[in-house]
Amino acid sequence: MNIENTKAQMRKGILEFCILSVLKEKDCYTSEILDQLKTAKLLVVEGTVYPLLTRLKNDELLSYRWEESTSGPPRKYYRLTEQGNLFLNELQVTWKELSEAVNIITNKHSHE
Question: What is the largest CA-CA distance in the chain?
Fold first, then answer.
């Protein structure tokens, strides 16, 4: 079994949750989202994030607007829709339950 593949699969599973969480705080363009993920040590490349943002927009969890930039081309700012906020709230509950369950299991086995 390849440990790097397993780690990558775990990261992909939570990436959607992390992006929605970033956008809960404020509207962001893609580079800002990537910077926040990088700061949290979730190393993700643009080629992974762009299709995910498109899918989230197509699912009506995100919307976007274009804004002129003083340092380059216009930027696409993403924001959570009302449906996106509700979806994120559901994910937060699920994450809390999952995190607690994993902690119980892993702590139980680390003391054996």
Answer: 59
Chain centroid offset of residue 48 CA: 11
Query: Are 84 and 56 spatial neighbours (Cβ–Cβ below 8 Å)?
Result: yes
**Residues β-bridged to residue 78:** 28, 64
The amino acid sitting at 30 is: T
Report pLDDT digits (tens) over 36-76: 999 998 888 889 899 999 999 999 999 999 999 888 899 99
Q: How far apart are CA 31 and CA 71, in angstroms?
A: 13
Residue with tokens 């699969």: 9
Lookup: tokens for 58? 């197509």
| CA distance between the termini of the chain | 24
DSSP-derived secondary structure letter, 27: -
Please report, to the nearest 10 degrees, the dihedral formed by the alpha carbons of residues 88, 94, 99, 105 taken in order: -170
What does the block give as tokens for 28? 């962001």
